[in-house]
Task: structure prediction
Amino acid sequence: MTAKIIDGKDTAQEIMEGLKPRIGALVKKGIYPGLSVIILGEDPASLSYVKSKGKACEKLGMRSETIMLSEKTTQADLMTVIRNLNANPKVHGILVQLPLPKHIDEDAVLEAIDPEKDVDGFSPINMGRLLAGRDCFKPCTPNGVMELMARHGIDPAGKHAVILGRSNIVGKPMAALLVQKKKGADATVTICHSRTKNIAALTKKADILIAAIGRPEFVKAAMVKKGAVVIDVGINRVEDKAAEKGYRLVGDVDFEAVKDVAKAITPVPGGVGRMTIAMLMLNTVQAAENLSGRNRGL
Result:
């Protein structure tokens, strides 16, 4: 058995195409959905990711702004930038690229972002709404996974979903989305992490296995139940002298081995990463629609 490849590239493109009429309707009102991204320092991976967000905005005819700050920027100065963006009516989405330098209080930064412009879905208000099953901006990567499964006919209802990783960015919100009492969710969820004993015994029971731990090719074929759906969120650089750049990208799953066991699997690259960008664009357009309606008294 060779797994069906769950193509995130094509699915993300479908979502982006679906946003164009909504953006066009806003533009006719003189509203250009605007995303402002704040980045501290010059981490190559973060810079590459921010660049891809800007390109996505440009392709859709949205406003994009990248605010480059020194990694030595003070907490007070960063808060001032955020307050100014909160007050700017032309900015509909605010994203602070994580991780932040150690001297910055990440929690305080996320709390400072207007929840109506929190298109990353990381503010405690949106996180609380997510857990309660209320409308909110959902974190882009977990929501991208949910959308990817839905569009490929993978229904989590009644299934045992095992998540590797408990981060606030992927693991925890992923669990919150899957466990909701609603269509496209209703899964039984187990979260594994660095203190979990005998992880392989748990992953082997998963109908849906979601890997998000940042360890190259950690998930081996022996850890996967035959016929499981495997979603690989990891993006890791591994040295490869034969590659043009001297490295190649791999996920948290040993793709070549696991694809012969799983029923369906996402590749890296070309899987969940593309969906993350698409969901960010979706959240920004939704924020523009919400804010334009509120500002016009609708």
